[in-house]
Amino acid sequence: VGINRARFVRDALGNGLDVLAGIKAALDPHGILNPGKLGLDNPFGANPFVDGAFADGGAG
Q1: Is residue 60, in this structure, part of any structural domain at all?
Q2: Less CB within 10 Å around the terminal CB: N or C of the chain?
Q3: What's 57's DSSP letter?
Q4: Residue 1 domain-assigned?
């Protein structure tokens, strides 16, 4: 899904997103695989690519 369309996943999947979140939590209990993707919460906080930290195109 990616970060640009993640906000639309709940509308598309409805309660299916809860099932997806449960599966993701079982397979990735520490949330390190693609954090913030699939419309799920990012356990590490804000995403710098979405929140503008890299808006100038730099790597940090």
Answers
A1: no
A2: C
A3: S
A4: no
* 44-49 long-range Cβ contacts below 8 angstroms, 24+ apart: 47/3, 49/3
Can you say how many angstroms the Cα of residue 34 is from the centroid of all Cα atoms in its chain?
A: 7
Q: The dihedral of CA 15, 19, 24, 25: what is its sign?
A: positive
Residue for token pair 């695989």: 33
How do residues 6-15 score in pLDDT, each as one tens digit?
778 888 888 8
Dump pLDDT digits (tens) for 6-59. 778 888 888 888 998 899 899 999 888 877 777 677 766 665 555 555 455 555
pTM, full prediction:
0.57
| Nearest-angstrom CA–CA distance, 54 and 19 | 32
Question: Residue 38 has which token pair?
Answer: 């699939």
